């Protein structure tokens, strides 16, 4: 059978991505060699199994849509010329087993499927009607390509979710971590950024925090390997599932201790009012525990603060008192209400207010000058292929987590 190689006009990049999307479901999913072979042959271009196997020697196990499009554009197309086609169409002596035996070991052609197809074109003499097979194959290929191309659609829809958290590395190693809530496996890029906090010294926690994603079996799914810019880090594209855990781990590389001092910043003035400096600190603490970034503290967020600062769990009765006594909106505490709670505490008739406040600040990583040398806050951006939820909780970081 005579063959020649001809240049095919082929598909545009947009058409190729559209076809890829219709086969794989989206353009973020990477493909293995067998999936790539299927996609290439659905484009209408006759790419041989041997050609793709040769190309794959220099590639990873899976490749992206852009890399496959490069292969598609550069691949020579194997076509039957008119003379060869006429000669093949007249062939009436090829047995199905001869064709099947011609498929080499390691070929990407599915011999079992090919055997089923050949049965439909085998005549009464037990030979394959090559002409009929070629005609139907050519017609079907055009129909398949047109169907897969379908109407032009916009690029895959993407979603974004932002949450905030905070952590301390001393005296307790604790952080706000998250559980992924999603209906099905979802492509996701998680970006960790150190949040703006005037209480945290500028040299603290830079390149020191990692975002770690692991599943219910504590198998590592992803971590922030890529530095996007100063104080901003990415996991790259990973696949997440319901129940996966997102945790922040501090490595302690910026924890060079400065000289301690027994002199303490003023928290409560002589008139029992909070000092201006301490109010700024309370504002930063409020922002650190505003997990959903709505400018308010709901009951769960306030409970995170209460427990992280060394107190017991917030009860429903405690929360009801806060809402009845302090400024709130939509069932949540405002920043003004949060500061007012501490102003009331400052008037403790037993005189323990200052000691209690310093205990809370110490638990949150503050030193005696209201510098957050052992604690910081962070923002997490989730860029996903479908909507997800990130359910927060306050968690102690133990040796098992750090071993990940």
From TrEMBL:
SUPFAM superfamilies associated with the record: EF-hand (SSF47473)
Organism of provenance: Caenorhabditis remanei (Caenorhabditis vulgaris)
UniProt KW Metal-binding keyword: yes
Keyword hit for Metal-binding: yes
Superkingdom assignment: Eukaryota
Name recorded for this polypeptide: EF-hand domain-containing protein
GO molecular function terms attached to this record: metal ion binding
GO BP: positive regulation of protein localization to ciliary membrane
Key words of the record: Metal-binding, Repeat
GO cellular component: ciliary membrane; plasma membrane protein complex
């Amino acid at each position: 059978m005579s063959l020649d190689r001809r240049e095919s006009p082929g598909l545009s990049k947009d058409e190729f991505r559209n076809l890829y999307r219709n086969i794989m479901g989206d353009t973020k999913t990477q493909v293995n060699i067998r999936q790539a072979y299927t996609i290439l042959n659905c484009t209408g271009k006759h790419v041989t199994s041997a050609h793709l196997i040769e190309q794959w020697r220099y590639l990873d196990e899976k490749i992206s849509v852009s890399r496959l499009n490069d292969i598609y554009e550069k691949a020579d197309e194997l076509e039957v010329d008119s003379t060869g086609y006429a000669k093949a169409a007249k062939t009436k002596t090829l047995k199905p087993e001869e064709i099947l035996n011609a498929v080499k070991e390691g070929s990407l052609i599915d011999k079992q499927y090919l055997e089923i197809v050949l049965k439909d074109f085998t005549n009464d003499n037990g030979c394959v009607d090559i002409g009929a097979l070629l005609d139907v194959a050519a017609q079907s290929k055009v129909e398949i390509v047109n169907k897969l191309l379908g109407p032009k659609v916009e690029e895959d829809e993407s979603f974004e979710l932002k949450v905030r958290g905070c952590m301390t590395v001393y005296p307790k190693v604790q952080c706000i971590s998250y559980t992924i809530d999603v209906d099905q496996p979802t492509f996701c890029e998680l970006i960790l950024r150190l949040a703006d906090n005037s209480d945290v010294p500028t040299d603290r926690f830079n390149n020191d925090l990692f975002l770690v994603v692991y599943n219910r079996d504590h198998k590592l799914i992803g971590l922030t390997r890529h530095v996007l810019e100063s104080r901003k880090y990415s996991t790259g594209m990973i696949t997440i599932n319901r129940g996966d855990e997102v945790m922040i781990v501090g490595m302690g590389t910026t924890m060079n201790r400065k000289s301690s001092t027994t002199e303490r910043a003023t928290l409560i003035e002589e008139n029992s009012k909070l000092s201006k400096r301490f109010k700024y600190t309370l504002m930063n603490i409020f922002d650190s525990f505003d997990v959903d970034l709505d400018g308010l503290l709901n009951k769960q967020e306030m409970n995170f603060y209460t427990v992280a600062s060394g107190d017991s769990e917030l009860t429903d009765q405690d929360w009801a008192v806060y809402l009845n006594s302090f400024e709130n909106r939509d069932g949540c505490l405002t920043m003004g209400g949060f500061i007012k709670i501490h102003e009331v505490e400052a008037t403790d008739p037993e005189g323990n207010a200052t000691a209690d406040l310093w205990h809370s600040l110490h638990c949150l990583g503050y030193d005696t000058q209201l510098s957050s040398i052992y604690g910081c806050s962070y923002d997490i951006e989730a860029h996903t292929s479908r909507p997800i939820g990130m359910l927060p909780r306050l968690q102690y970081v133990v040796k098992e987590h750090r071993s990940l």
